[in-house]
């Protein structure tokens, strides 16, 4: 029976591998397009099927077997199958962005992840605009979002450094504008503390780098033997002329 090697190096029966029973991955995982199906949803769903069909080790950073492993060629076939799953569940635009020759499922998985993480700033701005438009549209149909829902939406998913102020906002239930001002103030305070830290470090670093100390250091790094000889010669000359 044909064997293949898993990412951990374990040799398994390839003929019994459940990945080969998947005839159309698109019937199980919806196509990631960034709008109807978001990356966060897709990356949660894909590993579920990868685990169910015993190929999770191809996308979870498990080291691939060395090419001298007896089952390496069979592992590579399974990996190519998983790579096809990734490509076949992406929109044409996304597939073109990560499509490469002589790559692995893990490399494609990581490249897709980087594609979305690198654009998170612009994506955040776009989502903020979409949220603003949604608020306006709900107001137009006389179903406005309440202040409390706006506040909860704003503080949801804040980074860890805003945990304290976020908890306070959640408990005090201020208006949306007040909560936003509190977050902006906290952001300014954190930035000021960071700048102050940099200033202190810079000052400590420059203590031993004053112009006088640098000049002394440069003189000391010269040729002390010649300097000493020069001073000695000068003394003897004065004694001779005197």
Describe, in plain words, how this protein is organized in 3D.
The chain is mainly α. It folds into three domains: 116 residues, no CATH class; 78 residues, no CATH class; 32 residues. 62% of the residues lie in helices and 2% in strands. It is built from ten helices and two strands, in the order E-E-H-H-H-H-H-H-H-H-H-H. Strands 1-2 form a two-stranded antiparallel ribbon. Strand 1 and strand 2 form a beta hairpin. The radius of gyration is 32 Å and the shape is extended. The C terminus is likely disordered.
Mean pLDDT: 78
> What value does the Rg take, in angstroms?
32 Å
SSE arrangement, N to C: EEHHHHHHHHHH
What structural class do you assign from the helix and strand content?
mainly alpha
Number of domains: 3
Strand order of the largest sheet: 1-2
Beta-strand fraction estimate: under 5%
Number of helices: 10
Shape descriptor reads extended
By DSSP, the count of extended strands is 2
Distance between the termini: 108 Å
- The helix content is 55-70%
Low-confidence stretches: 225-242
Secondary-structure blueprint of this entry?
Blueprint: E1 3-5, E2 11-13, H1 39-52, H2 72-88, H3 92-98, H4 105-118, H5 120-140, H6 147-155, H7 163-172, H8 176-206, H9 211-220, H10 224-241
Antiparallel strand pairs: 1-2
Helix pairs in contact: 2-4
In short:
The chain has 242 residues and is mostly helical. It has three domains: 116 residues, no CATH class; 78 residues, no CATH class; 32 residues.
Keywords:
mainly alpha, 3 domains, disordered C terminus, about 240 residues, extended
């Amino acid at each position: 029976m044909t064997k293949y090697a898993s990412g951990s190096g374990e040799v398994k029966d390839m003929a019994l591998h459940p990945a080969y029973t998947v005839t159309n991955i698109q019937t199980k995982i919806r196509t990631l397009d960034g709008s109807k199906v978001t990356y966060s949803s897709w990356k949660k769903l894909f590993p579920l099927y990868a685990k169910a069909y015993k190929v999770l080790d191809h996308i979870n950073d498990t080291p691939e077997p060395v090419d001298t492993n007896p089952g390496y060629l069979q592992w590579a076939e399974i990996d190519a199958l998983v790579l096809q799953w990734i490509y076949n569940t992406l929109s044409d635009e996304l597939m073109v962005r990560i499509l490469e020759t002589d790559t692995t499922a893990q490399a494609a998985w990581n490249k897709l992840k980087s594609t979305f993480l690198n654009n998170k700033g612009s994506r955040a701005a776009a989502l903020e605009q979409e949220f603003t438009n949604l608020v306006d549209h709900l107001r137009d149909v006389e179903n406005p979002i309440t202040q409390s829902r706006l506040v909860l939406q704003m503080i949801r998913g804040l980074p860890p450094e805003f945990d304290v102020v976020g908890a306070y906002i959640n408990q005090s239930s201020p208006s949306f504008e007040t909560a936003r001002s509190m977050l902006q103030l906290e952001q300014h305070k954190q930035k000021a503390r960071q700048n102050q830290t940099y200033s202190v470090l810079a000052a400590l670093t420059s203590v031993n780098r004053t112009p006088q100390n640098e000049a002394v250091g440069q003189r000391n790094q010269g040729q002390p033997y010649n300097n000493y000889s020069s001073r000695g010669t000068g003394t003897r000359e004065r004694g001779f002329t005197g």
